[in-house]
């Protein structure tokens, strides 16, 4: 398919050290998305990224709840919350974008997850959908109609970014070979792909762009 540069944007979700092999919340083979993203970015004039940016006292960290373990669920500010390892703490090396990721010509970076009492998987909103990151308004102000989503992780932050993009009225494409999942359960990524397609996302491969 031909990308219309005038009304299309590439969204790079959370390709940060803590989500890559060796990181605190590593996605299996997550580093394999980097060369794919670097290759497709030249198809776009408008490129944005999201960045997990947590305070050390974030409520989604198991370490901040006595007696709780990673993978357990709690209620956080009225929302169901999976507890994660400490990751992507603001101003840490783990929160940095991977050095192999080509950041040339990025227009904006939208930080998320800074509020300690609510997590933020989506690049557009927190999980309670009460606070906006500004990404949606930025894309609309720049005349964007089509968004192409890449990054980590397919079954969490990428999925919720895709679903919110659809909800906001964008024609939404997932570059399927430019994302990998956490897979707390073995089929989580496959189920996420199905859910995104069911809601209206179009799955494409990088080679088709």
UniProtKB/TrEMBL annotation:
Every Isochorismatase-like domain range: 8-206
The domain of life is: Bacteria
- Pathway(s) of this molecule: Cofactor biosynthesis; nicotinate biosynthesis; nicotinate from nicotinamide: step 1/1
Q: Which Pfam families match?
A: Isochorismatase
Sorted alphabetically, the keyword list is: Hydrolase, Metal-binding, Pyridine nucleotide biosynthesis
GO biological process, alphabetically ordered: pyridine nucleotide biosynthetic process
Gene3D superfamilies attached to this UniProt entry: Isochorismatase-like (3.40.50.850)
- The Enzyme Commission number assigned here is 3.5.1.19
EC class:
hydrolase
Please give the family membership noted in the entry: Belongs to the isochorismatase family.
The protein in question is named: Nicotinamidase
Taxon lineage: Bacteria, Pseudomonadati, Bacteroidota, Cytophagia, Cytophagales
